[in-house]
């Protein structure tokens, strides 16, 4: 019904940059009410990185403020994460999340991408 397709992960040296993309698709999508990024490092819980809320504002984890920027193209149902000044502690699998309302339903549901690996290492 819904697909979230991520791209842009990879290996980068400390201080480098990467840009992640996530595109949502599905024939029954009525609206996307929130969209953003989470990450999960080995042995740790999944944590919020940066998201757009349903009201259109943004939330960032304290650890990425000033380094990461989340942006959105509503016409393309796509969210981006520009990551600058990357640190080894940013190494994780990054997951796209979207709260999507489908036709025939009354409330939005959470959908997740498959995850993309980001490794920051020299």
Describe this structure in words.
This protein has 122 residues and is mostly beta strands. The protein is built from no helices and eleven strands. The protein has strands at 3-7, 10-12, 18-25, 29-40, 47-52, 58-60, 68-73, 78-83, 92-102, 109-112, 116-120. Strands 2, 4, 5, 6, 9, 10 and 11 form a seven-stranded mixed sheet that branches. A four-stranded antiparallel sheet has the order 1-3-8-7, with no helix packed on it. The chain is elongated and about 50 Å long.
H/I helix tally: 0
Q: What is the approximate shape? A: elongated
Distance between the termini: 40 Å
Q: Poorly predicted ranges (pLDDT <50, ≥5 residues)?
A: none
Mean pLDDT: 95
Largest sheet: 7 strands, mixed
Note the beta-strand portion: over 45%
Gyration radius from CA atoms, angstroms: 14 Å
Strand and helix order: EEEEEEEEEEE
- The counted number of beta strands is 11
Structural class: mainly beta
Helix content: under 10%
Quick overview of this protein structure:
The chain is mostly beta strands and 122 residues long. Helices cover 0% and strands 57% of the residues.
Fill in the keyword field for this structure.
single chain; 122 residues; mainly beta; 7-stranded mixed β-sheet; 4-stranded antiparallel β-sheet; 11 strands; 0% helix
């Amino acid at each position: 019904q819904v697909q979230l397709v991520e791209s842009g992960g990879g290996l980068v040296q400390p201080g480098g940059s990467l840009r992640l993309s996530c595109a949502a698709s599905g024939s029954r999508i009525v609206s996307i009410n929130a969209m953003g990024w989470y990450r999960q490092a080995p042995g740790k819980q999944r944590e919020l990185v940066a998201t757009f809320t349903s009201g259109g504002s943004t939330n960032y984890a304290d650890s990425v403020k000033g380094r990461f920027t989340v942006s959105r193209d509503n016409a393309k149902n796509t969210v981006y994460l520009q990551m600058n000044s990357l640190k080894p502690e940013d190494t994780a699998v990054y997951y796209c999340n979207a709260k999507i309302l489908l036709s025939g339903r009354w409330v939005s549901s959470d959908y997740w991408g498959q995850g993309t690996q980001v490794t920051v290492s020299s």
